[in-house]
Target: Nucleoside diphosphate kinase homolog 5
Amino acid sequence: MQVIMPKPQIFVERTLALIKPDVVDKEEEIEDLILRSGFLIVQKRKLQLSPEQCSNFYADQYGKLFFPNLTAYMSSGPLVAMVLARHCAVSYWKELLGPANSVRARRTHPHSLRAIYGTDDLRNALHGSLSISSAEREIRFMFPEVILEPVPAGQRARDYLNLYVKPTLLAGLTALCKEKPADPMTWLADWLIEHNPNKPRLQHQTTEEEHQ
Model:
């Protein structure tokens, strides 16, 4: 009887989540809901933004009538910024948030986070990135020390494999065919560890005392 093993989960997508100033006191409760919804909280910090920083963060909303009220609201107190990770993190987080207008959310998505914790269109409790590209920008804004490495795809992925993986793997498979070990997978794994071209090289310096 064939046993079907579940595919391993790899958290390749990240999004930014903000717990806004008026619901910071619900931080633990909201985090629990996030974790139970299948997200991993990769990073978290509590901070308070100045009106100027809020203007920079919401630069794409500049010029709209609600913009001054938005920056005043977001700078009115501390907020919690989180980097969330899971498969399709951006779309799943937007779905969990519900509509931006909390009044509408209570009518159409009563179990969404904005329906539960939000007040109105402006004070809607939580923020989520709209796309993968905006998530990258917003994560860099809130966590400037974070290094985001995009997952290569298409020709970039092929170029990466051809340059960094295939030469060493081909050499290992050639050596494997010559050796023909009883446990080929373990042998190949050991060979790759031993012949990893990026393995740190230790330089042993001989002092005068060692010669004496």
Q: What stands out?
A: The radius of gyration is 25 Å. The first strand starts at residue 13 and ends at 19.
